[in-house]
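#structure-requests
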Amino acid sequence: MATVREKAEALNLSAFQSPAQRPPGFSVAQKPFGATYVWSSIINTLQTQVEVKKRRHHLKRHNDCFVGSEAVDVIFSHLMQNKYFGDVDIPRAKVVRVCQALMDYKVFEAVPTKVFRKDKKPTFEDSSCSLYRFTTIPNQDSQLGKENKLCSPSGYADVLFKSSDMRSASLEDLWENLSLKPANSPHVNISATLSPHVINEVWQEETIGRLLQLIDLPLLDSLLKRQEMIPKVTQPKRQPDLVNNRNYLDRGILKAYSDSQEDEWLSSAIDCLEYLPDQMVVDISRNFPEQPDRIDLVKELLFDAISKYYSSREPLLNHLSDVHNGIAELLVNGKTEIALEATQLFLKLLDSQNREEFRRLLYFMAVAAHPSEFKLQQESDNRMVVKRIFSKAIVHNKNLSKGKTDLLVLFLMDHQKDVFKIPGTLHKIVSVKLMDIQKGRDPNRDTGYIYCQRIDRSDYSDRTRKTTKDELLNLLKNIDEDSKLSTKEKKKLLGQFYKCHPDVFIEYFGD
């Protein structure tokens, strides 16, 4: 362990806090170089997650483009998940201003640029009709310019903070000074007139509404009272400061070792350790291999500790069992896209702490399950080992068969990069409803969901007769074409059908 401690001392890691132990008001941007880190993270997320492809605009096709609304969705989702500024509300309008700032500093440009006059500043539009393309950083080395490659996120961040008007300002200062007025409309700032409670209620209401549209739930009580059913995470007992300092040091040492290896497996495992009790982390530190280069022994130690912890605690998704059944049923029927959106909505209903813990665990599971990674058990496939060990840590639903449980867990692992995104449909519906509330209009005038439509009595009667007749004809066809029925059985069924519905029988067989 001495080698690892030396690395930790070299990095000046005397204390290290986990997300669950951070003091109130903690912000990544308050840390040294935090602003550069957050901007780099935003740019990297945008570059890797937004859909870039050939698109049509004004009867012309443009290569390697993305639309403005999708860029806002990606950044909005990234900020909501990572909570760089703590539990603060981030309106969509402010994300639009972030996109405007990125465009001002040439991270991307509008397409086609000829629609803008040279003396007019391009304006970012949160629209599915506005096209944008990533650019290279000006004044980079000539080789980069010749190859026309995208600059790295850190390169963009350097340019952002080398400019005179940003050099002395932190990211939070810039964030605070960004105008909340949307770039392409005179709308009033929603958060200035609506309380966080109202905004959260709208998000919850619309999330549940969309979920009900995708999944047929027999009872709504568990869904509407979800907050009462979410298991509370037991907080560790407060220890003396000396013990806390030792725990922080152990966590810092493990983090330093992970950073020095540049191994995705180790990095994801160390992130999960931040939710483990202090004593387990101390035990890991004490049992750390004497040869730090024996990465296989390190991974075995970490995997055993993580699996032991999650096998003895309440499942992270042990609520809303009817939703589990609904998503599993969608998967069984091959409706993967609908199941993905339903999962995104379901996870949106989690509180922020459980959501983040589950995100880290699922990421670790996905990495550890890869066949090219460290072999967890010699006689079994990594994917099956991870599924078997962590299934009960995710969901333990007595009403869900083992087959459907396995299918659900494997689906979550395979789509771990997508399940925590917020659906664009939900973004749009919430934005419209909040704007209606802010302007004093009826927020329910257009909910975005259509469950039924009023029709007159005669139309209802006509549709009833037509639907009944169509189903009877379909039933008669099935009887007539069923090769498994004997001649005697078929004759008997056809006779019964003719006795009850002679008109349909005659229409099908003729006179």
